[in-house]
UniProtKB/TrEMBL annotation:
Residues 8-166 form the Glycosyltransferase 2-like domain. The keyword Zinc does not apply. The keyword ATP-binding does not apply. It comes from Flavobacterium franklandianum. Keywords: Transferase. InterPro entries: Glyco_trans_2-like, Nucleotide-diphossugar_trans. This is Glycosyltransferase. The lineage of its organism: Bacteria, Pseudomonadati, Bacteroidota, Flavobacteriia, Flavobacteriales.
Amino acid sequence: MNENILITIVTPSYNQGQFIEETILSVLNQTYKNIQYIIIDGGSTDQTMNVVNKYKDQIDIIIHEKDKGQTDAINKGFKLAKGELVGWINSDDILYADCVEKVVKKYIEEPDGAIYYNRFNTMIDAKGEVIKNYEKNIPNRKYLLSINYDVIQQGSFYKKELVKKVGYLNDKNHYCMDLDLWLRLLNYGSIYNVSKCSSAGFRMWEETKTNTGKEKFLKNIREVLISNGAKYYSKSVRKTYWYELKVYVKYFLKL
């Protein structure tokens, strides 16, 4: 494969020392090699930086300083990115070895895209064991606004010039900055699925942000949907209220 196309991967990090080595190795071991790798650490106080520094000669940019959170860290990385396509992988998630290769192949075939994603994904636990494999087919922007807001961030890449055009990630979004970015990018380009099998692992464990702040997560989703044009009565918006109700019912049943 022609490897003239530079791809940038950003890892936002904060106190994920138990997982970040697996994340780093999943990037360094990609079959596609023309990758700029950037780690933005928000001032970790655990073993994170000891792990990161083991690989400092293989990581293009390492920043270790206090930031305003995950969204701010990703934006810092994206603004330093030199790749035609950019993406991020969180410091507790992993990319499978051929992830970037699949993305570049589709980008060469369909260069008009704004988003290149894999509709298949794998959920893993704290030990890296597979919990389940799942599929989310996302055909267009309208589908996200009106039917189902779920996106697959792990293994997704975005055209850098369009990310810059839409103003990067909205740093007011601390939970679903990915959904908001997708909705804004899809005003300017298409979305393409890159594979028929999973190319990333999303780690679900007790400290995952979507686990520890479900009510805030659902509220943020609703705000993002409405601000991007979703109707209050759309299935996507109604789904947030339904899940929110389930969270409260589950809470009160435990009392």
